[in-house]
Sequence to fold (626 residues):
Amino acid sequence: MTRDVLDWLLDGAHWQGGEGIPLRVWQHVAYSLIAVGIAAVLAVPAGLWVGHTGRGRFLAVNLVGILRAVPSLGLLFASLMILGPKIPGELGVHVPVQVVLVVLAMPPVLAGAYAGVEAVDPAARDAARGMGMQGRDVLLRVELPCALPLVFSGLRSAVLQVVATATLAATVGLGGLGRYLIDGLAVRDYAQMAGGAVLVAALALLLDLLAATLQRLVVSPGLTGKTGRRTAAGETAASSDPRDVGVLTEGSTR
Amino acid sequence: MIRFEGVTKEYADGTTAVGGLSLNAPTGAITVLVGPSGCGKTTSLRMVNRMIEPTAGRITIDGEDTATMDPARLRRGIGYVIQHAGLFPHRTVVDNVATVPRLLGWDRRKARDRSMELLERVGLPAELARRYPHQLSGGQQQRVGVARALAADPPVMLMDEPFSAVDPVVREQLQDEFLRLQAELGKTILFVTHDIDEAVKLGDQVAVLRVGGRLAQLDAPGRLLADPADDFVAEFVGRDRGYRGLAFRPAPPLEPREEPTVPLGAAPEEVRRVTADWVLVVDAGRPVGWVEPRAIDAPVTTDRLHRGGTVARLDGSLRAILDAALSSPSGRGVLVDDDGLLLGTVTASAVVAALDGVPRTDPVEPPEPVER
Ligand SMILES: Nc1ncnc2c1ncn2[C@@H]1O[C@H](COP(=O)(O)OP(=O)(O)OP(=O)(O)O)[C@@H](O)[C@H]1O
Ligand SMILES: [Mg+2]
Fold:
């Protein structure tokens, strides 16, 4: 079985042409990133605003809960029936798929953004205001940078969920890696189905790795504790990350 | 001068946190607000920079009503230090300190230079500048908090229990450095604490508040200890206030007695020749400690010295002089001049005898009352 999957994956013919793996991967990435992008544009500012003002929190919490409970497949068929006829051409299929994926991506992104701002040390926020920062400065210079770790974890969990669920696109005739699942099922080609699933998983991991790299570049080392803590003051390391212990004994900071 | 005129804060739930507070915090002096928990100290302080809006009364700074000023601009002109420092965790120490100068539009370079200068001022080594707050100890964080508040050189500083979250030894260090810094800078400071010892140590004047934000007494620390206005203040000021009050009473004209000494490195016979009792050891004219002649079997070295005794300046406070006598193993307190050179010794009974001739309260004028 594993052998068959491996053979399928390594078959050069599957990697070429208009229906090849690279194209499917590309389509899958496009569907996913567009959805996460739209969700981020909508939910990050909304979440920051909720966290900053404390207003609309009840609404946000419930929205997160409700959106999480929406079954993707049901939503796909519903929006296909409602939106499909109103939008001409291929867009009539693309839009319903995006609706499903955006709805899926919203909850973690929204929750990450408002929880991130809420988790900011109240003393830091108080100091910021007390030094004469105005609301916008407090949000952009203190709350947002401090919220970034949670904003990122929201985005990353959205990416993982969306990449897995974007396979649904194939059920309505679009491309992406879901094709291998659908087409494989139709001809009972289990190696193809399993190969497709492996590709989805690998893609999810790769995108998460990229997001993690971006996160490391963007988030201040002051927040991640990845700077280690000098022991000169006779104090213990703030980070429990065992890798940091090595840093400490060298007495260097990264 | 910061001036409270009948300032009241009632919270929405009906709590009167501050009730009709009137007081002046004179320019260039430290005014301490002290009182039990919940008596409205923080509320009073935060009304000055309008983090909290008063419900009645007014607060002026150098005659200007704060209610008419733009809050953000007002705050940029006031240094603000809070209990847990409230440093920005995502910024390095140097960038934390540069916050207000950057807000005021200074260029990066100038703000950074200023920031480095301040770190040195508050006693932080330059190597710490590139660190993040989580890499600092509590005491270091608090110093950064003070440096950050001083960055744009504001004439007024508000400090809310800035030293209460650190251990007693570090607290004492921070207090001493704070006084040294204030002697250089001469800011107008409103300082909140619930610790009466800190209040009398740091304050040029101390305002004792009772619950409900009512002023119980406003006085120089010496007078507060010597003459509490009522039972509440007396209770709050606490025990030992007679002894602690000596810190604010100038030394009486004492005649130090000449004390026989031996130099560091003296042989046992030399020590025994002086007296059988404790002998004072000096090094280049400075007292370094006491030795007991019969316990000596080799030339006197620093590690053989009894280090328990404190040393007082002849023109220091009565408390320091009496403490020198009480802490000395010989019962004779060591007195020095301003350069630390030995002048002689004095016994506790001589200090107490001299006490009778000294005024009971310090000669500082009581702060001017607020006319309404
Ligand atoms: N936002 C608020 N709403 C209602 N009551 C408040 C609020 N903030 C403070 N209070 C009340 O006002 C009173 C004074 O509070 P404040 O924080 O000024 O006290 P404090 O003297 O600083 O006390 P502590 O020494 O404990 O810091 C307290 O009774 C407190 O419960
Ligand atoms: Mg308080």
Notes: Residues B 41-42 surround magnesium ion (ligand 2) (CB under 6 Å).
